[in-house]
Amino acid sequence: MTCGIYTLANDVVYDQLIALLNSIATNVSPDFPVCVIPYDNRMSKVVAEIERRPSNVTLFSDGEALDRWEQFAADIWQHHPTAYDVWNLRGVSGVNRMGMHRRFCAFDGPFERYIYLDADTLVLGDIEPILAPLDQVDWVVYDFQYKDPTHVFNVHSPQLNAVFSDEQLDKIFCAGMYAAKRGVFSREQLAWLLEQLKTEADVLYINGPDQAIVNYMVLKLGLNIRNLSKCLPANQVTGCCATSSHFERQNHYLVDDGKRLTYLHYIGIGSRFFARLCTGENLDFPYRDLFLHYRYLDSPDQRPVFQGKPRSIVDQESLAKRFMKRLKSRFKPALRR
């Protein structure tokens, strides 16, 4: 049975992709199969990186599958009552973050069992505990997204509690990491889901379109989900997000209260900050030295040497948000018209 890891990337996340691939080679196996799904056509650097890697790292090249899953997403969002209007106001043409929906290609890709990982992730520990439960269940996750449904579904939709029970909503997950099996969704099931979404699309969260859809699919079909953050003994559970500041570094991995993390997701840290850091700008964000270690593991001579005191990206983000808030306030009358 073939097992592997999928990720989604383009040249915008080139530095993060290299770090992820190096972390897999180090902490899983240098031979473990990895398939990179193209986010869009900006792929020249990524393709060159894959070509220089061993043959276990491949590029997903099934154009028919890419087109089919993009069409699946477009068919869903055309039924949402406000999505296209909101996206158009933001200057988005078509479906917001369409490339993110391409992760769905893994559902009928080459691996019979797989883990999907966002490119802004480092694998730091044994992944077998994530893959092994697929003997008993359909879907495996390891996160705490269930505590915050606001980034998965439209919690203000009057339909939400009619579509999903509280018990179902307690099973939501982050789409940045999950394990599943090839063929988990049949063509008949996908057609049925599209039919349901003609009247239920309002429950989807438009700012995380792919995450909303995959959660809807899994919950609506009643797949058997195992969330390791709930199922593992309490003394084995760890966090996974870079927003948690209490992880301690040991060698080239992290521990949470003495327990080794399986993976670290740099969620909320924009790809532009990784790119600027790698060009030598002395930016500071959580666990940046761990990222730099894996990014330049094979090319330590290219690792940037920083001068002076690092500048926190938190301050820059706050400044940008304050500016955008003032800008929106200034032009609000025009938007109303």
What topology, given as strand order, has the largest sheet?
3-2-1-4-7
Weakly predicted, low-confidence segments? 326-337
**CATH top level class name of the domain at 3-231:** Alpha Beta
Helix content: 25-40%
Reported for the largest beta sheet, the result is: 5 strands, mixed
The helix/strand order is EHEHEHHEEHEHHEHHEHEEEEHEHEHH
- Here the CATH topology of the domain at 3-231 equals Spore Coat Polysaccharide Biosynthesis Protein SpsA, Chain A
CATH superfamily of the domain at 3-231: Spore Coat Polysaccharide Biosynthesis Protein SpsA, Chain A
Structure summary, number of beta strands: 14
Query: In terms of structural class, how would the helical and strand content be classed?
Result: alpha/beta
Classify the beta-strand content into a percent band.
Answer: 15-25%
User: What is the CA-CA span between the terminal residues?
Assistant: 58 Å
* Coarse morphology: globular
Question: Would you tell me the overall average pLDDT?
Answer: 93
Task: Return the CATH architecture of the domain at 3-231.
Answer: Alpha-Beta Complex
The rounded Rg comes to 20 Å
Q: How many H/I helical runs?
A: 14
